[in-house]
Amino acid sequence: MNGNVDTDEFIQFVEIAQDTHIQNYLGTDLLEKLQALITAGTIGDPGNEDYNELLTEYVKFMLIHWAMYEYLPFAAYTIANKGVYKHLSENAESVDKNEVDYLQEKHKQIATNYTERCIDYLTFNAGEKFPEYYSNINEDVSPDKITDITDWEI
């Protein structure tokens, strides 16, 4: 993705990736702990080193590629007051759906790799460093420890 992509066009897919993928693998409590530390500006404070490492070494890379996975099918379109528009350029060639699907699958593979590394790290360190990983109850999302989710065939 280059710097010409409008933040307003992409940011919603970051939120979708957090809600659907990151929360699925971290669980509600751990995700909310990270969000609280970031919002408070204390993620880098002494005592939060483990959370900072989790965020910068694992979650960041998961989020980047899950967000791209969610964004790619919509990248060529704009939804405006008068309808849905497909972007065209004089000096660029539009790609077909198969090419977008290929790019999306590549980001899914990369995201899955980072997710598996994160799950391994959390499973090994959760009891000692991240008690929130196991503290989800009731309507909270409990962490999924399996990334081998296949698409349904009908």
Q: How would you summarize the topology of this molecule?
A:
Elements: H1 7-26, H2 28-40, H3 49-71, E1 77-80, E2 83-86, H4 97-129
Helix pairs in contact: 1-2, 1-3, 3-4
Residues in β-strands, percent: 5-15%
Number of strands: 2
State the strand order across the main sheet.
1-2
Count of separate structural domains:
1
Low-confidence stretches: none
Q: What is the rounded distance between the termini?
A: 33 Å
Specify Rg, calculated over alpha carbons.
18 Å
Instruction: Decide which structural class fits the backbone.
Output: mainly alpha
Query: Given the structure, what is the number of helices?
Result: 4
- Average pLDDT level: 87
